[in-house]
Give the backbone structure.
Amino acid sequence: MTKKPVLHYFNGRGRMESIRWLLAAAGVEFEEKFFETREEFEKLIQGGALMYEQVPMVEIDGMNLVQTRAILRYIAAKYDLYGKNLEEQAWIDMYVEGLRDLSDMIMYFPLSLPKEREMNLEYILQRATTRFFPVYEKALRDHRQDFLVGNRLNWADVQLLEVILMVEECKANVLSGFPLLQDFKVRTSQIPTINRFLQPGSQRKPPLDDESIGTVKNIFKFEQGMFLKNMSTIVAEY
Amino acid sequence: MSGKPVLHYFNARGRMECIRWLLAAAGVEFEEKFIERPEDLEKLKKDGKLMFEQVPMVEIDGMTLVQTRAILNYIATKYDLYGKDVKERALIDMYAEGIADLSEMIIHLVVTPPDQKEAKIALIKDRTKNRYLPAFEKVLKSHGQNYLVGNRLTRVDIHLLELLLYVEEMDSSLLAPFPLLKALKSRLSNLPNVKKFLQPGSQRKPPTDEKTIEEARKVFKF
């Protein structure tokens, strides 16, 4: 009997949320082990299971996988969410990599200094509506299928839905002007595994509230006011 | 009949260098079209060739690929440098992403303001010798094989070699405590395709100097 994957993270979205989404969409049950303090995180590090002393980490199929993209690609390939050939894989990769830039901005937004919040929010919404959403609207228009690539659900579809919902949390009607994305959102939300994940009581995590922000800062020793534009460097520095 | 891949980027390392390395290691000849003026970049955008209005971009097999990782994944898969199964791929990805994180810090150095540079360099050196190099030395020690994954050359060996050369450029003493990494570096450098790429006159790009950054700023407006 196969053991369920075990996700090691704090009890919040962060970089683990995309992994939760993908497992859920694939219909894979998973367990979670949360750490809540710096001490608990250090205990995990000392246990030796974190190759770079970082999380996310997922125990799956006898491996302690770290690095978000490594984990996501493994799940996508294992559960047939990565297209049917090399060309489809390339399109999926382009789409998910593009979304990562936007989702990183949203991930770091709660760490903004109060005086920067409005400016950062404007920046996120401007990028979403002028750089990112037009690309995916066009992709759906050109491809003329229910999915971004091929004719069945794949990793890029799941990621796109996740990001759409997060941007809508920033501004409710952000999809006005993108009719195909609106249809995509409705249609994809109704896929049974995804629909289940969207219900209250699922393992989907809410946005960070003030208390959780404090917890995260203590665990990872983040400083306040991290600049959105240097996200990838910031990650490596931790 | 497919032509050679065409790489669109600035005449510098940046985010295209790892792609040049992988193609070279795979023995694939490629052409380069350098973006030298703002108009060059504008034209690519206007022609609809840049999905996210960004480079790197590589024309290959009738596709216009963007996003460094998408391009690397495609090349690695096509030329059988991505392991033999999904589990080997997972290890390759896990190691490659760690390499990418450290490389990202090094790439950012060239655009770091002068007053922050020293602190940044100190941080990079610390991470190199206390986090990343030990992790990869440990991998080699754990199986005693000549390559990081699956006992044959894969993309991650090439990514690591490239990184080790940059570490060496920064401070050659950083490699001293890691005998297996030094041996790997030596071995890989002697592979025919790699050796050729390491020669002067290849398409490998030199370290980025101030002048190159200034020119890049004009084109890419950062």
Q: What stands out?
A: The two ends of chain B are 39 Å apart (CA to CA). Residues 86-190 of chain B form a domain with the Glutathione S-transferase Yfyf (Class Pi); Chain A, domain 2 fold (CATH 1.20.1050.10).
